[in-house]
Design a protein that fits this description.
By secondary structure, this protein is α/β, with parallel strands linked by helices. The chain folds into 2 domains: about 1-30, no CATH class; about 45-160, no CATH class. Helices cover about 25% and strands about 15% of the residues.
Length: about 160
């Protein structure tokens, strides 16, 4: 438990990350992304008529989310059948979490149940994998446009991002 945490209270992710990086010897705190103008728009039709895409930060077990130089790239996979295995190549606290429960970071079954109940029209054919990189410029200038292009190509009206 960190020095700033009250017993019985949730762990403050941002503060814990700051302390972690300081313990590693970094003198400058991580610069968190901020957006003065968030690019969200209203749906053009009711949610019940909308196709939803799922976006995950998980990596495929075959590491097909890498380019020739080994850098993470935008990737996608079929919703049906859903992939069973994911790798643990991102940094997080592995004691309380794992990749055994795909629904926690790629909720295909839960979303399909909502679609069956008429909450929305259905899922797109593919989900999209968003790379986890430590460059806001790469995320905004390279990966975000690639993800948007994949969502549009698959006919998505909206998307849900589930982080690992």
């Amino acid at each position: 438990m960190g020095e700033h945490q009250e017993p019985g209270q949730p762990v403050g992710y941002m503060e814990r990350t700051r302390l972690y990086y300081r313990a590693l010897g970094y003198e400058t705190d991580y610069l968190w992304s901020t957006f003065d103008d968030v690019p969200f728009t209203k749906l053009k039709q009711p949610l019940s008529e909308s196709r939803i895409a799922l976006i995950t930060t998980a990596s495929p077990s075959d590491l097909s989310n890498r380019d020739a130089a080994g850098r993470k790239i935008v990737w996608s996979g079929k919703v049906d059948p859903p992939p069973e295995k994911f790798v643990t190549d991102v940094a997080w606290d592995r004691d309380p979490t794992h990749t055994d429960d795909r629904e926690s970071f790629l909720p295909i079954n839960a979303a399909s149940a909502l679609a069956s109940d008429g909450v929305f029209a259905g899922l797109t054919e593919h989900f999209v994998g968003a790379p986890t990189v430590y460059s806001q410029a790469v995320t905004m200038d390279v990966h975000a446009p690639e993800i948007l292009a994949k969502l549009r190509a698959d006919g998505a009206d909206a998307a849900i991002l589930s982080a690992l």
